[in-house]
Structures are given as structure tokens and as C-alpha cells.
Amino acid sequence: MKKYFSLVALLVISFSIANNGILKAEDSSLSSAPLAGPQDKNLGIGPVKKLVLGPIDKKMVEEGKALYTAQCIVCHDMDQKKIGPALKNVTKMRTPEYLMNVLLNSAQMQKEDPTMKALLKEYNNMPMPDPGFNQAKARAVVEYLRSVAK
């Protein structure tokens, strides 16, 4: 009986610690680059200040996939790190505005944004080249990235 109460007490303490955020995996101290989740409203540096997303647009996804394949896949795989980070779940970690601003204003973001600066350091200071996208193309790439997120 004493072992049972000890086990229950241990489980209650563990659950309490986890719920208070002490052991959460998304804690930015566990990653070299700061994470931006739903609680982080980092919009990045650039022209996009607000982006309202609706249901996934399949036509935009196809355009975004073509752009990603033509320009991004050299450095970014979906599932594993390459020259740059894997992008499969980037839309769950960064705001859509942030992603748009990375695609539209990569040089300034790399110089001034703390998240981008940390990523540069993590990836051997290999700068992201300017993809030369306009807002419509950047939005299509973001839509494609939304479509592959799990």
C-alpha cells in the first residue's frame, strides 16, 4: 500500500511539473534557435504586418510547391536538415507573417531578426539568398508549407 501511495505521489508531482512548463519540449532553452509558436507573435521584419489565413488553397499549394522545388529544396528538405533547417513543420513554429517576411526581406531579416541570426549561427553562417519573390509567390510558398505540416 505504501508503494502505491509513493507511486501516485510521484505521478502527481511529475504531472504538476510538466503542466507548469518546466519540462515542456517547446521550451526555447532546449533549442539553439528561438521557437515561435502560437504564443509568439513575431512577425519578422518586412512589408507583411498582417496575414489572415483561410482554408488551404490547392491551386496556391501547387504554385508554391513548384517554387519550393525550383528554389528552396537545394537548401531546405522537408524532413531533415540540409544547408538550412527542415521546413515540414515551420508553419507551426513561425507566424505566417514571419515566413512571408523571410521570403520577401531575407537580407534584412538575417541582419536584424534574433531568430534568423540564431539560425544563421546554427547553420554555419550560411546566408539565405534572396529568392526574389513578390508577395504572391511568397504567399504561395507559405501555402505549400502549410499543406505539408503535420
Quote the distance from N terminus to C terminus: 44 Å
Sheet of most strands: none
- Which class best fits the helix and strand makeup? mainly alpha
CATH fold-type name of the largest domain: Cytochrome Bc1 Complex, Chain D, domain 2
- Secondary-structure element string: HHHHHHH
Taking all Cα atoms into account, the compactness measure Rg is 19 Å
SS elements, strand count = 0
Q: What is the average per-residue confidence, as pLDDT, rounded to a whole number?
A: 79
Structure characterization notes:
The chain is mostly helical and 150 residues long. The protein has two domains: 1-25, no CATH class; 31-148, Cytochrome Bc1 Complex, Chain D, domain 2 (Orthogonal Bundle). Helices cover 51% and strands 0% of the residues. It has seven helices and no strands. Helix 4 (96-104) packs across helix 5 (106-112), helix 4 packs across helix 7 (135-148) and helix 5 (106-112) packs across helix 6 (114-122).
